[in-house]
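In response to a reviewer's request, we include the raw inputs and outputs for one of the modeled complexes. The two entities were modeled together in a single run.
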Amino acid sequence: MPYNQLLAFLDYLDPTIHKHIVMFYEEPEYAKLVQFRFLSNGLTRGERAMYVVNDKQEMPLIQRGMIEYGIDFDKYSEKGLLQLYVNDGIRNLEEFKQVYGMFFEDMEEKFLNYHQKQNHILPPALPPVRGVGLAIVDAFAEKGRERNGESLRTTANATTQLQIERFFHNEKCPSFDGSWICSYQMDNINAHMNNQWMADILNSHDAVLFLPKLSNGIALSLKRE
Amino acid sequence: MIPVAESMPKNSHSFCIVEESDCSRSTFIAETIERAVSDDCAVILASESNPDSVAELLDREGLDSSLYLNRGLLTILDRHFVYSMAKARFDANELSNKWFPLSSKVKKKTGCKGIVAIGPPRVFFETNNLDKLIEYEKSYGRRFEGVPFEAICCYYSNDFSKLSLNNIIQILDYHEYVVYQGGKYLRWHPNNIILAIINSAIDNALGSGTSSLLLKTLELIYNIDSDKIVGQPEIFEDKLRKVLGITAQAALDRIRIEIINELSYLRNTERGIDQ
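The model returned the following structure tokens for the whole complex.
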């Protein structure tokens, strides 16, 4: 049985080094377990956690999944440490800045409100954030999935997603206190490894998690220095 | 399938890996002497043991060593010769100057068409001169064009396993063949064999299917392609450590072990050969 290097990477993650992580997966259930482990590890360390879904209908599924994984959803939510948000369909970088800015503001407010209610004279410093979510869904999927009868995959999606990844990596990451996983589903990860966008995506992250079918997966640091 | 070698000498610089404690060393030496003599070559064997005990060992393998020694077809050099390498401070030119005059002398004396020289690189390990070993191996090149001479470096597996992956790949690169039991010579160039082993070792260490993703990522991020893995193994090793962090050592150890297993003289191989 090979050593599960990917899970060890998650358990010993240093968010000051690996802030912006990309995950390529083939099986959604396995991807969720990895995402929950990542968030749960952070919550255990006193960090905040945010999960951004792409469809409102997913919210109860994610909530149930977290509870089944062993995350005390109610306790962490009440303390303003764990929030779920819905991304209704970001179309460009400006919308990304606006929508994600609102998510972060809301999360901060909920955390501070909780401490106000507890009559804490001085609120504690904001803990780092661990997040999971994408700006644009299915930007690099080989088959565009449909939502409301409309195919989600276009070249424009891919270009915008890449623009957002670069913005977050270059502009936001240096001051971002936390770590974020961008998750991309694909039918066959290996088949995409020769694509230019794959090189671009890897070059816009600090680490990559590969979760191919029938494998434990692997985590690679992409830090150059 | 690995074909039996052409007749000796093959004008090549080759190597083999034997176990020190079992019979593979004496099997290799006895087999090589028999093949060389049947191809009208004389053998010069440098040994770190004394010549009498080497002769005894060969007799136990069923080789009438006294017959070969008396006819000058076998010359056993003693510890003094081997350790004179250390005295020469492992200078590659000086070491070559020790081998070739001796070879000419034996050839002239026996009237054989060529010489097969067997040398153990142990002294480099004992004196912790691995950099000099690499330099020495490199200085010979893969072939001795126009010279009826064949050199086989006989490594002990214990020594060989002390080498880094980088050094192992370099040593493979500096030799034309790896010699296996039965006079089978396997050419590891171009690099498809070593790359196949690296792939399989990473999959075994980190999980099936991970190797191709890891190697492709190295290529996309650091421009480490298959040529660079073998041509500049020190860079490959360095980048592997960067992307895998503390897990890299397990992967590197696995690669080293699998390569050494593939190189073992007594390995029962089905692998193909490029002659």
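As requested, we also summarize the result in words. The interface with chain B takes residues 2-5, 8-9, 189-190, 193-194, 198-199, 202-203, 208, 210, 212-218, 220-224 of chain A (CB under 8 Å). Strands of chain A lie at 20-25, 48-53, 82-86, 129-132, 146-147, 150-151, 178-185, 207-211, 218-221.
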